[in-house]
Prior knowledge:
By secondary structure, this protein is mainly α. The protein has helices spanning 6-34, 40-60, 65-71, 80-98.
Amino acid sequence: MNIDNPSLKTGLIKWAFRGVMYKAYVAVVLMLSAGRWNWWAGWLYVFIFLMFDLATALEVIPKDPTLLIERSKSHPDANTWDKVIMPLAAGCYRWLAGLAPV
C-alpha cells in the first residue's frame, strides 16, 4: 500500500504520537505510584508495551495502514454503553496499575 497520501501520513503520525504519549503517561503513573524512578519492573512493562505497538506497526502498516488509523479512532455509531464502559475500564486499568506491588 502506498503511504504517500498526506492524510494517511498524518493519521499514522497521530497514531504514533498518541501511542508514545500514552506510554509516557503510563510510565509516569507507574513510577509515581512506586515512589521511585528506578523501578526496573515498571520500565520493563513500559518497554514491552512499546514493543507491542512496534510489532503492530511493523505488521499492519505495510499491509493496510488505513486499518491501523481506523481502529484507533472512536466511531460515532458506537453503542452508548461502549462509550461509557471503555473510558471506565481504561480508568480502572490505570488505577489498578498504581496498586501493583513494588
